[in-house]
Amino acid sequence: LQRELEKHTAKTLESHVRQLENNAKALGPIKLVLTKGPMRKGMDPVEIANRLKESDKKMVAVIVEVSDRVQIVAAAGEEAVNAGINAGEIVSGAAKAVGGGGGGRQFFASGGGPLKEKAEEAMRIIEETIQRQLSIPTAKEVA
């Protein structure tokens, strides 16, 4: 029974990763998966972000999991990092918005905080940070 459950969880995880990958949006030289919400049981945001990063060297995957607190995980492929992406900087700014902290390296970072009501603000900060890293004007700069 345990083995069956593990197989089912692995299939579900793989399906979820493929679905996110298919919905990635092109942003300059990178592909971006930015998703927010509660994770289903057996869905590890770190594993999902890493699988997305490994699927495409241009991929930037940022997962904002909202449960009893906010967890933020970012992973960036080699070409995305070469284009200017820094996952540590992405997570650091977003985690501050949710009342916490975090960081890491260019390729991978994680963090979070307790302020669930600030998750949308964290999403906005993530998008603005990525646009700044890629030298793409943000909505504020265009206005």
Can you offer a commentary on this structure?
Helix content is 47%, strand content 25%. It is an alpha+beta fold. The chain has a six-stranded mixed beta sheet with strand order 1-2-3-4-6-5, sandwiched between helices. Helix 1 (2-22) crosses helix 2 and helix 4 (87-97) packs antiparallel against helix 5 (119-133).
The outline comes out as: globular
Largest sheet: 6 strands, mixed
Order of helices and strands: HEEHEEHHEEHH
- Order of strands across the biggest sheet? 1-2-3-4-6-5
What is the overall pLDDT average?
91
Radius of gyration from the alpha-carbon trace, in angstroms: 15 Å
* Helicity level: 40-55%
CATH architecture annotation name: Roll
What's the CATH C level?
Alpha Beta
Structural class: alpha+beta
Please indicate the percent range of residues in DSSP E strands (runs of 2 or more): 25-35%
CATH topology: Diaminopimelate Epimerase, Chain A, domain 1
Number of structural domains: 1
Oligomeric assembly: single chain
Spans with pLDDT under 50 lasting ≥5 residues?
none
Layout of strands and helices, then pairs:
Blueprint lengths: L1 H21 L2 E3 L2 E8 L7 H11 L3 E8 L3 E7 L1 H5 L4 H11 L3 E4 L3 E6 L5 H15 L5 H4 L1
Parallel strand pairs: 2-3
Antiparallel strand pairs: 1-2, 3-4, 4-6, 5-6
Helix pairs in contact: 1-2, 4-5
Defining traits:
143 residues; alpha+beta; Diaminopimelate Epimerase, Chain A, domain 1
